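User: I've been trying to design a sequence by hand for this structure and keep getting stuck. Would you show me what you'd pick, starting by listing the structure so we're on the same page?

Assistant: Good idea, let's start from the same input. This is the structure you sent:
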């Protein structure tokens, strides 16, 4: 995994602050492969039930990204929010190939 322990902690804490302490987060994509270099940070966030409304999810996602930029600096971060019974391929791939932080 190509994140420092400090970066992983910052991501985890920011997820819990924005989405609640029961929220879960996975790192996926090129950052899980130690042999690769560079790349953006791809994250899948699974909010705890009950599912908040779409407007609330958007607000939480923006809050989360602002927190990360303040603490990690400006960098490319892609965030996917898992919905209840989500069947999107990106969600399946994140769970199959990603690392839960």
């Amino acid at each position: 995994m190509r994140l420092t322990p400090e970066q992983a902690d910052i991501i985890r804490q920011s997820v819990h602050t924005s989405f609640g302490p029961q929220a879960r987060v996975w790192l996926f994509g090129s950052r899980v492969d130690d042999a690769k270099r560079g790349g953006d940070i791809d994250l899948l966030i699974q909010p705890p039930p009950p599912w908040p409304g779409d407007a609330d999810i958007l607000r939480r996602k923006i809050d989360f990204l602002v927190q990360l930029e303040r603490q990690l600096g400006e960098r490319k971060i892609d965030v996917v929010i898992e919905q209840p019974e989500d069947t999107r391929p990106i969600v399946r791939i994140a769970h199959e190939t990603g690392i839960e932080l």
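That's my pick for every position. To get oriented when you compare it with your attempt: The chain is about 45% helix and 20% strand. The beta strands are 24-28, 41-46, 77-81, 99-100.
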